[in-house]
Amino acid sequence: MNGLGLHPVLPWPVAVLLGLVLVGLCVAALLTRPAQRRRWALRTGAAAAVALALLGPGVAGAQAPQASRAINVWFVADTTSSAMARDYPGGKPRLDGYREDIPKIAEALPGARFSLVTFDSSARATMPLTTDTNALQTAVDTMSQEITLYSAGSSITVADEYLRGALTKSKERYPERARVVFYLGDGEQTNGQAPTPFDLGDLVDGGAVLGYGTAKGAPMANLTSIGESDGDITTTDGQTAISKASEDDLKKVAEQLGVPYVHREGGDIAPALAQAEPGELVEDASASTPTHVSLVWVLATLAAALLLVDLWLVSRDVSRITRAAREMEAS
């Protein structure tokens, strides 16, 4: 053990302000209510324990080896209107499959750097490379299909140019880090042209193409604005439009990237990762992370004990008052 440290359970300003308010109110009552001084002393002690707990005190420990990999990972997700076709298991949209699988993959690759790239008529980085998995989770949670009104057809390989640039920069800046691509989509080409093949050469070291949806297809939600839909998309003759997944085209994308193709219907992500062979990528043996033993539970226990004593005192006083009232009525 190397010393005491603080790991606030809330942002610093919020934790300090909330602690001061709790303790301040109790101290004010302690000073202005002498008849209840004992009870307010207990409450002040409990408030102080809670205020300290909000700061997250902990005792530092040794450096723990981190199962980290020296890799940069790009998730390339198809967010065209077909992402909202409801033929993922449970009648869910395909986009829900992306949201389930991306965090699973990130959890299986601790220490890696992750970037989220989405594409419809063009490709863009929704999140740049980072080790912050919380930021990745937020980006995945807020990922949305394109607004239907602006949909003008797209190509399943429209991310080629963006990926080539990103992977090239990564190779130049981090030559020691492997470059991994997980492509998530349904393979439906909607711009009326044959998809231009991915041309990334030897820039991709591993990954997988993850396929969602069925050949039978399903209707797609008509997105009118971010997060709001208005029924299903219809064709020009008023019929419900059906999006059909194309495994053949996804397999071609996998071949172009030099990675395996895996059809996804939820469940364990391990089979997809096994085929992607992340275990053969370079391990970052130098990575480690400090550990600490949290003392929050000690303070929380103390606060609870003080409040239980306070509750007992209140119950005792109420019992006395009730008994005295009954005796007065009886007399």
From TrEMBL:
Every VWFA domain range: 72-257
Domain of life per record: Bacteria
TM region(s), chain numbering: 12-31, 40-60, 295-314
Pfam families assigned: VWA_2 (PF13519)
InterPro entries the record matches: VWF_A (IPR002035), vWFA_dom_sf (IPR036465)
Keyword annotations: Membrane, Transmembrane, Transmembrane helix
Protein name: VWA domain-containing protein
